Structure formats: C-alpha cells, structure tokens
Give the backbone structure.
Amino acid sequence: MNHDSGVVLETMRHEQRAVRRGGRVLLGCVAMALGAISIASAQQPARKGLKVYISADMEGVAGAVSADQLLSTGFEYDRFRGYMTDEVLAAISGARDAGATTFVVSDSHGNGENLILDRFPADVTIIRSWPRPLGMMEGIDSTFDAVIFIGYHASTSNSAGVRAHTFSSALLTEVAVNGVAMPESGINASIAGAFGVPVIMVSGDNVAVAEAQHLIGPMSGAVVKRAISFEATATMTPAAAQALIRQTARAALGRRGEVKPFVQRAPMQLDVTFKNYRPAELMTYLPAVTRTSSHGIRFMAHDIVELSRFLEFVTSYEAGLQP
Ligand SMILES: [Zn+2]
C-alpha cells in the first residue's frame, strides 16, 4: 500500500452436506438405487473446497521498482497492473490445484483500483478502493482456510528492501504493536490471526519475504526479485515469477496445517511514528491517544479490528475530504 499526501501512491462455500437417510422401508429397484447412492456417499465423503484470501500489493511484483510502475501516472503502470493481476491469477491457479474453490482478493496498492477485473474467473470476489475498516485485509473472516500475500514489500523500519515502507512512505516512519515494529505483512497477518486464519505464503523481494517469515513464522516464500537498493532490483521475468508463485501457492496450501495463525495479545498497544511533527500533535487532541515523543503517538486497542480502524483513520483522514 502507499498513500502519499492526497494522491494515493500506493460464499458461498460449497459445503456438500451428507444427507442421512434411513432406508429401511425402501424396496426393490428404488431401494437398490438409493443404497448405491448411500454407499457412494460413504466412500467419497463430501469434500469441502478450501476458501482462500489473497491480499495483493504492487511494490513486491517482479520488476516493480519506482513510481514509473507504481503510480497510475507512471509510463509503465498499465503494464505493471497487468503483471500484478497475473501474479494474483498465478496464486489462484496454484491454490486451486491444491483444492481451493473460493477466493476473495483485496486490491491493496495505491488507490486500490489496480487489478484488471475482467481477467479474473467468475468465482473470484475482489475488494477495491479505500477506506475500509480492515485495510489490506478487508473481507477476511473466520470462514477462510488460508491467506496469501502477493507483491508485498519490506517495512519502513527495514534498512533494505525495494520501496520499503509501512502503509505510507509519505506519512509514517514506524508502526509497532505491543512494542514490536511491524511491516504491513505483520499487521495483516495479525488481522487474519484474530479470525484464526494462518498466512501460508508471501511473495515479494528477498527482504520482504525474509522479514515476514522472521516475524510471522514459517510461511512459504516466493522471492521474485532481489533488492539492490530502494529503487533497484535484480528481478525474475514476469512469466518466471508467475510460475514460481503458482508452484509455491500449490505447495503452501498443501502444507497449511503446519502454519499457525499469528495472534497478538490483547489489548494491543499501537505506536505510530509520523514523518512530520504536526500530525502527532493534533492526534493527541483525541482523548484515546497519548503522545510518546515529538513525532510519536500511542493508542490502546481492545482488539485488532479496532487497531486496524484506527490505522486506517490515521492514514486516510483529512478535514478536506470530499465528497
Ligand atoms: Zn503498495
């Protein structure tokens, strides 16, 4: 994600229910036919398709390095929104290979209107635009089996990583929960974790993937490029990256039982450090907010939903909002 000063840079679950039948009174061919159905049901128990949530950003897409790809005014933006779409489609294909049948995808970069809708299969639901209470995880709930992060980037607290930032490179220099600095992957995994859903995979550059795995746990990683500097990379081609993502998603969903949900202790202490002075000063006018430093504020959240709504407010509110 990335919001920059006004301009934004950045189920039906088909559960086949076993119908229990008592066949005692059934006779003749009808009984035999029903008996056959009953046996078939017992031998092939109703298979529940898996439900997968995909949160998609763009900085971690293969080849993306600068505003030329990441901003809608960039000369390569149109091409890269296509690559972002293709990486999400690759994750969907891989997850489908491993038994997923229901998908919700959140378009979580820039204006939230990057994914090319008509490229998606009809059974995919897409979350787009802002603001939304659960941010990059809007639409997640306890009915999902797994979460996948596509196109993710490292945090603003990391000295490496292509386009490393946390929610807004223009506004924030650190976000911490319960005293631990969090990348977007950490906050978003915590939201999923509160609903009991594990993050099974992340794709992005080597720094983003390592950061997420170190903080959250042993999820699968698809490293599609190596960070050289903030805006330079050694990258895979789009086709090679998509093949890796598909293969990783398939394997990750198969091993989902090995990954635990990432859960934060509640109540949660949220520390936000602003790039500038005045946002910290003004936020402290709210009675629920305390000042921790010249640029820092603290908010105690009862749960992750409250924390997420507060973060969304901090990064989205301006008195001049229209309409
Ligand atoms: Zn982004």
Summary: The two ends are 22 Å apart (CA to CA).
